[in-house]
Amino acid sequence: MFTWGVDKVCEWLEGIQINKKYIEKFRAEEVDGKSLLCLNKNSEKLKLVFNMKVGPLKILQHELSVYSKDYDKYVPKWRENGPIRSWDTKQLFNWLEGIGLPKKYLSLCEEEEINGKAFGILSTSESNLVETLELKEGPLALLLENVQLYNDS
User: Fold this and answer.
1) What is the 3-state secondary structure (H, E, C) of the chain?
2) What's this model's pTM, rounded to 2 decimal places?
């Protein structure tokens, strides 16, 4: 699942009998395999953003439990680069690329000359990240989860 793109996630959701209205929302929010695993850790966001009812939510969480337990072993370890706030734009770009942030968001970070310090300021608020990088829910979940994992390591 960690390598699945948006289309593969949507096929899988259909296979576990998730309603098409939810599948289309996952597609619109660019939810790939990595971001789906991140979103699975936040059932409130799945309820609020994706308007998932309890039945489909429980099916999704149950089916994802097999994949979720191995998530951390796939996350790149970057601690040797020091705190994110100390990174230059290239180090931040490499980290974002390494965690699998889609290229269109990487390009925007580069264009806007966002370095580690600027990213640290932006990442204090979900709305800052969404507005600045024009993030959909899938990439946002991936980014927030990896920032948390990085800070906790």
Assistant:
1) CCCCCHHHHHHHHHHCCCCHHHHHHHHHCCCCHHHHHHHCCCHHHHHHHCCCCHHHHHHHHHHHHHHHCCHHHHCCCCHHHCCHHHCCHHHHHHHHHHHCCCHHHHHHHHHCCCCHHHHHHHCCCHHHHHHHHCCCHHHHHHHHHHHHHHHHC
2) 0.82
- What distance in Å separates the CA atoms of residue 91 and residue 110, rounded to the nearest whole number? 11
- Give the pair of three-digit tokens for residue 79: 């601690």
Q: Binning pLDDT at 50, 70 and 90, where does residue 141 land? A: very high
How confident is residue 2, by pLDDT bands cut at 50, 70 and 90? Answer: confident
